[in-house]
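> forwarded from #structure-qc
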């Protein structure tokens, strides 16, 4: 529990309620995960706003940003599937939608004529860059109460937790 002079948030009130209702339960995980859950709602609102301002849906940003991060703005559909965690049927539909909007192209790879590559088009680059700039500004605002040291410590702590669930699995082409 916070010290008597510390500001209280809604999670403190939730924890106190559970401690009264079920005195035998250790509700300490709520102090972390309820706050993460509540913060994720604020982040999701910021993400939707940043993407909408660039004329994108969340899945479109995910696809375009995977391509933008690739180094040459092109990936195979299987690499995109791996990075965005969708099925091949969903990937095909999403690629086709992005092609119809002029945000990506889908062509045979110049390196291997049997393979297909999805490549960002200038409009896709412009939109994903705009969305990313807006998202970073919003995320900076969400982190504003933390100094640089606290932000680094939080990132490291969250990394430790996340690594217990994620396994390194490099994308295949």
């Amino acid at each position: 529990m916070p010290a008597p002079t510390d500001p209280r948030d809604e999670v403190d009130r939730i924890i106190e309620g559970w401690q009264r209702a079920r005195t035998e339960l250790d509700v300490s995980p709520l102090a972390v995960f309820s706050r993460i859950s509540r913060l994720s709602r604020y982040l999701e609102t910021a993400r939707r706003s940043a993407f909408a301002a660039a004329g994108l849906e969340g899945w479109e940003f995910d696809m375009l940003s995977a391509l933008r991060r690739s180094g040459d703005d092109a990936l195979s559909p299987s690499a995109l599937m791996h990075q965005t965690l969708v099925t091949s049927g969903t990937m095909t539909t999403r690629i086709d939608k992005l092609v119809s909007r002029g945000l990506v192209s889908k062509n045979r790879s110049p390196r291997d004529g049997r393979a297909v590559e999805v490549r960002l088009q200038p409009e896709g680059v412009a939109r994903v860059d705009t969305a990313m700039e807006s998202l970073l500004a919003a995320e900076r605002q969400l982190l504003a109460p933390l100094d640089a040291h606290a932000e680094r410590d939080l990132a490291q702590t969250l990394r430790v937790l996340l690594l217990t669930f994620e396994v390194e699995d490099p994308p295949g082409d």
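QC bot note: The first strand starts at residue 74 and ends at 75. The first helix runs from residue 10 to 21.
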